[in-house]
Amino acid sequence: MTSGAGEVLSSFYDRRLVIAPIGLDHFADVRNLHASALREGTSGVLSETELQALLTLIASPRYSDLLLQEEIYGGWIDDELVGTASWHTNSDDGRAARIGWVFVRHPGFGIGRRLVTEVEARAQHSGFNQLAVSVTANAIPFFERLGYQVASRGVRNLGPDCALPVAFMRKFLLRPVRTRLS
Ligand SMILES: CC(C)(COP(=O)(O)OP(=O)(O)OC[C@H]1O[C@@H](n2cnc3c(N)ncnc32)[C@H](O)[C@@H]1OP(=O)(O)O)[C@@H](O)C(=O)NCCC(=O)NCCS
Prior knowledge:
The protein has 6 helices and 8 strands. By secondary structure, the chain is an alpha+beta fold. Coenzyme A (COA) binds next to helix 2, strand 5, helix 5 and helix 6.
């Protein structure tokens, strides 16, 4: 793709993207998006065993419980769910809001940035100025670009059979995140 074509597509997605809260009715679309984004995005950073454990978790009823703990926002282009991001008031140390994982169906066109900006603004609106996120290695450059820094590396346990290597990242919000809250 030429950079000119990329710019046209980015502008298209930016104009057409509608961000709205995700509810139970959307969970099937969310599972589908999360599974396909992980299959495409994590090759080389997760082992086949780790990826399969994650995909099994996403297909399980427990995943609904995990989703329900988060405030999730979806990015829609017409009827297609093209991305999600989420946040949660509790992080491990209780001081920072936890940003959940971000999943995008068409990477590279600014959708992830729009979604993270949205949930950052929500978290900041609720009084947090520190954000924490634990990310798989493929997503580190994306979060660095958005102002996060790696604090440490370790393992995140998502269930008895699902432990993933992650980087723990932090961001301090010095200025208000500029987005429109609906
Ligand atoms: C990681 C992910 C959410 C990024 O979303 P995206 O829509 O592609 O990201 P954006 O287009 O908004 O990129 C925002 C910025 O980050 C940069 N960026 C994104 N991915 C990058 C990468 N892999 N390497 C370097 N820079 C990257 C972009 O170049 C852009 O920079 P800019 O400021 O110059 O414009 C997406 O690739 C994805 O869904 N991956 C698979 C699922 C996954 O692993 N999620 C993360 C689990 S923690």
